[in-house]
Amino acid sequence: MSFLTNFLLGLGLAMDAFAVSMSSGTTVRPFKVSDALKLAVFFGGFQALMPVLGWVGGSAVSGFVSDYAPWIAFGLLAFIGGKMIYEALYGDPDGKVNSLNYSMLFLLAVATSIDALAVGISFAFLGTPILEPVIIIGCVTFVMSFCGAVLGYRIGHFFENEVEILGGLILIGLGVKILAEHMDWI
């Protein structure tokens, strides 16, 4: 695969991570550069790791991934999105949210990188070497996640709770989109 193909694949896979990073950037107060780096490392790392796992697992997990991955992603994103909405409506009146604990980052990273697992499986079926695509996918996701978190922080303080509700709705919407595509509704 060419660099351009791998780069475009990385962009496509990074869109969910970008949206989630942007949502996270709107809610975390006080926001630090280290928060954006945490998001970028988790999302970039998982987007790079999941294709490797898919490639190694190959056809052994293809049935599971195709049957259950959209449901898992939907469940995780709906839960986290619902939690964000709840916290916006009933949480700390100062608007300070620490949604970047490691368990939350892990769940978000898994939810946004399940599609990368399927890409790895397809690479295995096609006999495509994995190293270059994985490096590019991870780097693109790292940069997009970092930028998304910073952008979310920059615009988030203008709207406070409304942006957190919007972020929660975006996560739920991503989950619904993943599920709808799996069910051939769209």
Describe the structure.
The protein is an all-alpha fold and 186 residues long. It is built from six helices and no strands. The protein has one domain (9-182). 83% of the residues lie in helices and 0% in strands. Helix 1 crosses helix 2 (33-57), helix 2 (33-57) runs parallel beside helix 4 (102-126) and helix 2 (33-57) runs antiparallel to helix 5 (131-159). The protein is globular, with a radius of gyration of 16 Å.
Largest sheet: none
Query: Uncertain spans, ≥5 residues at pLDDT below 50?
Result: none
**Total of DSSP H or I helical runs spanning 4+ residues:** 6
Oligomerization status of the protein chains: single chain
Helix proportion = over 70%
> What count of domains describes the coordinates?
1
Task: Please state roughly what percent of the residues sit in beta strands, choosing from under 5%, 5-15%, 15-25%, 25-35%, 35-45% or over 45%.
Answer: under 5%
Broad structural category: mainly alpha
Radius of gyration: 16 Å
What is the number of E strands?
A: 0
SSE succession: HHHHHH
